[in-house]
Amino acid sequence: MTAVTAINMERKRGAASNGDAILGLIMVAPIVITMAALVFFPLIDTMWDSLHRINPMQPGTPFIGAANYTNMLTDSDLRASWINTFIYVVIAVAAETVFGVAAAALINQVKFGRRWLLAAVVLPWALPGVVNAVIWMWIYQPGAGLLNGILTTLGLPFDNHVWFNDRVSAIIAVTVVHVWRMMPLTIVIVLAAMQSIPEHLYEAARIDGAGRSKMFTSITLPLIRGAIAIAMTNATVSAFNLFDEAWVLTSSSLDTRPVLIQIYLETFQNLHFSYGMALSLVVTVVSLLVSLLYVLRVYHTTRFD
Amino acid sequence: MRREIFRSMIALAAVAWALPALADDAKPLAGKSITVLLPSPQAANIAADFEKATGIHVDMQTLSWDDIRPKLVTALIAGTAPADVTEFDWSWTGQFNAAGWYMPLQDVIDKDTVADIGVAKIFTVDGNLLGVPYTNDFRVMLVNKKQFADAGITKMPTTLDELVADAKQIKAKGVVQYPIGLPLSPTEGASTSWYLLTKAFGGDLFDKDFKPLFLTPDSAGYKAMALEAQLLKDGLVDPASTGLKDSQINDSMFAKGLTSIMISGEPGRLGQMNDPAQSSVAGQVIAIVVPTASGVTRSYGLPEALGIPKVSQNQDAAIAFVKWFTTKQFQIENYANGVLPTRTSALADLNAAGKLQSGDALVAQSKVIDPLFAQGTPTWYPQFSSAVNTAINGVAKGQVTVDQAMQNIADATQKAMTQ
Question: What is the ipTM of this complex?
Fold first, then answer.
């Protein structure tokens, strides 16, 4: 009798398990289909097309193997744009992380009107990249620009200074606009993590005689490491995708040209579509590889936490 | 009597039945609808006037000039029509012909029209007319005659030496700080200025086999680049020009009286510059023929045309629009909107009526307009132009010498040719 009951129970459990599995499949089906149609299929199609010569000025689309990829090795403009892109990534990720965490820590201390402050901070991120860049173009303007005006008022020799005539200052100027736009996202992510830290940890630390800096390094930072890693991943991907700021401020200047502008020029100016596809795939892979460092870090941090 | 009334009624009924048919004959494409994509700004009444004339409804779309090409290319590579009638710039001719995206128009546009529009040959490849020019863009020089007079200059320059001397005098007299407007940014405007100066030095860019003619120091292209660097060094050109497009120099410097000479002036800008609502130097701006090294003026054309994509579903109505838009009457009317006619007859009529600003200079310049590429615009033009303006930008920033810049342009062109 007991054995029969156990078998029935097992059958019921199996049926329920099958039902759950089917329900689970139905629930995930929309996102799987959407991802397959809008991400995986285009990705595979692009990979396949990048192995062909797709140029509307030439007849046919013959298979050319890895020629588009090997051509990248001898493309001097591409090399320059990769160097610029890596500089953008390093400066932007470092600046967004350091200043973003600092800003989040400050905002976390604000007791009244935090929502309004946060809304104001998020504004640059909410604005389109082109709008941000145009605003900064006015700020950097040599004649009547705000930046030169302030520096000149302080007695410094910046009257009519052209910020984009020097490669170093041009790259920094473009990066500042990008950081200005993307840092709010870092602030929001890190602030959310800070607000989830239990207050009693700080109270215990205070009782043990810990100061503010000790609490920040021993409690806050370890507990927001995951959030910082997510913010850094986002900052990395967005820095690899930098386009609007460089295009509006310096057009296609080789001094500041990021790899995405190079892709745009190859694809839509030169009509080398499959070369543009190959470049896009390489940017995606490099961006993912760099981001993977943070993701692995998050994984270890989460386990440790 | 009753029979006569009956006959009259039948006649009236016949006329009533025939009237719509007659109207349809006059407007055979009435009721059709097309889309037109042109650079902004365009006159607001175009769609309504065309619909009134033909009964064809027009959905007029305008974009900034720089944004049109990506939109066209994206749609056309996907096999769809970006619009039934689109902008077709002279610089796209080589690429778009090779891609086979646009329908040949020589069989649907009458020969008199083509003959009247001299710059139509720039859009003709292998006997195929790919676009009908509607705006006559060529290069003259725009000068602020009041600033010249303020500096004590009474005679307009005809040689490059005189031009530089005048600019120095304007600066020395303190009339303006930077007398010459010259784009040095990595944009098309920087390239077109260098092409013009190359012409002004009496040379061309390539020989008949597309071998570069600008590599040696005694070549026109080399001298043109060296002159640009010298003008910047002498403080005659604003150092900020390394980041300015030609349109920005026009709008934010020349139209505000901050510079006296637009090296690569657009005739269509005369209306804007002399309009008090758009310019603070209204009434002071004239066009002069391009000063050259020899004193004999030269220039080249950069006209824009109307083209019809092969994949357009409304080609008949699109052709009707192209014909209407390039009629002599409409071109004369459209001059009020700053669009210089491409028809020689329309230009002559406007000048005879005294309506063409700096008419004598424009007519004189229009007689010596060459195509930039005698063999037709090559497919690799965008890469060439990009290499040119990148090189100019590099020279202006002091990052490369004129020698290196010329070699960089030649190398990039060679690479583009082999791709």
Answer: 0.77
Give how many domains chain A has, as a whole number. Answer: 1
For an interface test with B, give the residue of A270, A273, A274 to mutate (most B CBs within 10 A): A270
Among B76, B243, B386, the residue with its CB nearest the CB of A250 is: B243
In this complex, do A56 and B379 lie within 8 Å of one another by their Cβ atoms?
no
pLDDT digits (tens, 9 = 90+) for A166-209: 999 999 999 999 999 999 999 999 999 999 999 999 999 999 99
For residue range A223-245, what is the model confidence (pLDDT) as tens digits? Answer: 998 899 899 999 999 999 999 99
List, in order of start, the domains of chain B with CATH numbers.
31-137+302-370 (3.40.190.10), 141-300+380-418 (3.40.190.10)
- Choose from A268, A272, A274, A275 for mutation: most chain B CBs within 10 A: A268
Counting one residue from chain A and one from chain B, the pairs whose CB atoms sit within 8 A come to 72
| Mode of pairing for the β-strands spanning B299-300 and B369-370 | parallel
Sign of the dihedral through C-alpha B389, B392, B393, B394? positive
Tell me if A142 and B240 make a contact (CB, 8 A cut-off): yes
C-alpha span between B87 and B208 (Å, rounded): 29
Q: What is the pTM of this model?
A: 0.82
DSSP string, A21-55: HHHHHHHHHHHHHHHIIIIIHHHHHHHHHTTB---
Please give the residue of chain A at the shortest CA–CA distance from B97.
A57
Half-sphere exposure of B217 (CA within 13 A, CB side): 2
| Chain B: closest CA distance from residue A85 (Å) | 18
Measured CA to CA, the distance from residue A171 to residue A129 in angstroms comes to: 17
Domain residues for the domain of A90 are 77-304
pLDDT digits (tens, 9 = 90+) for B18-45: 444 444 557 888 889 999 999 988 888 9
Q: Which of A68, A269, A275 to mutate to test the interface with B (most CBs of B within 10 A)?
A: A269
CATH number of the domain that residue A84 is part of: 1.10.3720.10
- Which tokens go with A44? 């595979």
Shortest distance, CA B43 to any CA of chain A (angstroms): 27
Is residue A277 in a domain?
yes
Of A249, A255, A271, which is closest to B95 when you measure between CB atoms? Answer: A271
